[in-house]
Amino acid sequence: MMTKGTVKGIVSNLVTVEADGPVLQNEICHILTGNTRLMAEVIKINGNNAYVQVYESTRGLKVGEAAEFSGHMLEVTLGPGMLSRNYDGLQNDLDKMEGTFLRRGEYTFPLDEQKKWNFRPLAHAGDTVKAGSWLGETEENAQPHKIMAPFALDGSYTVTHIAGAGEYTVRDTIAVLTDAAGNDINVCMMQQWPVRRAITAYREKPRPFRLLETGVRIIDTFNPVTEGGTGFIPGPFGTGKTVLQHAISKQAEADIVIIAACGERANEVVEIFAEFPHLEDSRTGRKLMERTIIIANTSNMPVAAREASVYTAMTIGEYYRSMGLKVLLMADSTSRWAQALREMSNRLEELPGPDAFPMDLSAIISNFYGRAGYVVLDNGCTGSITFIGTVSPAGGNLKEPVTENTKKVARCFFALEQDRADKKRYPAVNPIDSYSKYLEYPEFQEYIAQRIAPDWTEKVNELKTRMQRGKEIAEQINILGDDGVPVDYHITFWKSELIDFVLLQQDAFDKTDAVTSIERQQYMLELVIRICRTEFTFNTFAEVMDHFKKRINICKQMNYSEFGSERFKTFEKEVV
Ligand code: ADP
Ligand code: MG
Question: What is d(CA 123, CA 187) in angstroms, rounded to the nearest whole number?
């Protein structure tokens, strides 16, 4: 029996509904107003009263109007045909409508129901399967796409029927599974899953340890991300968050890219829609959009839809990870998501935590980051979700709650700095404050020792120490003047400038410099280390400056030349 209810109170998007039966926390309900069905989510229950957050405008809604509880939580539909799409936070297809916004009460089906997919069975009749088992395979934008047993299955099932190779729609039955009691379930190529619950159809979730190459030197060399790792990019407006995110999306060794554009200004979301379809995929030479899904909400959409969008993105990521794929999930910006949480909690008149964010902000952020990761599936294959979020702290204040709580859980920290951006030292990632905790993982160090070089981690740490010393000396020179410190100090300072200009700074708009392979990063690191370890004797600081400026110039020209080309080799000879 479906629970029904009556609207008793309305405060903006928060509606109090008196229910005539049982209601679940986070259950979806619909409010019937005029000819419109407004979708809402239960966020608090008190006796017979359910407090529901409506996903769209409650304009014109009246006390006394009817509500229907659906009996299920907010779900996404998972199946082939999601790649290349632009969805909103409720998985409405934004391309199916005029403009970027749906009319009120309008919802679209997220997949193509007519399209026939070429299905190939992987399981056989008689096989024992469980949640997430691969039953078959199709192709989505030239990528293999596994058809999996429903994630909601409990225990083992026997395959009693499996469809032969052929063309099927997402609603056609492709398998019949039978449980021990003899109950059959029909399986098709799509399934539903509640977004707030993690898909855990895997055997184990070890700590991530494989390098995820991004081609960005300040990341790969200095603060590496792992396959299934987490990181975040805080930075004030104009410091290069978007440029860095695009570079990572384009270049990272990922099979699937999911962009959650949550609640940044409307024009920025429109920008993503305008830019992404044109981005070239440096891995395939085709369009990046072919393996990308965009989940977009702007700040003028109701907060509840904005809040849901990151979960929708994560759940879609988990679906592709269960196929044994490497997923890269980028969220821009998680601050807007946290603001949505704050607005909702304030309307509920909950006891607020720091800066009026909900008391459990820390747990919410850590649960979310916890869903990323590297997994070993039941069939032994591996998959991953690497999650990188931007944070836009008001006034660049890194002590605010969202930044602080994110810092506790994200393993990489890429702090974009106003001062570096002003000096055009791009990417403006602060070389001293930024870090990657993976550098400390023994399993990662071992992986890197084999993949790149046995002493790689040590050398990276040496360069970091040199950057730190260079910064300290720069401060002294600032106070005491060029002649106030020994010439040796200038040498130390200029060695750190060499590291900065040659390894850290990278031109995202130069075809060659933008993407640096790990082999090339290793080569340049060795070259820079060699110069740094050389003992120089100079008489004046002017001589020091002159010597290093020349070398920096040559090394920069190397960065702009094809690796190993004649031109590259000419510079190579000049520098040593
Ligand atoms: P944000 O998203 O933080 O507001 P953007 O990513 O839009 O900032 O960057 C602002 C500008 O900074 C860019 O338009 C570009 O001119 C410059 N910029 C940022 N990163 C780089 C880079 N790696 N190389 C060259 N220019 C950059
Ligand atoms: Mg931006």
Answer: 13
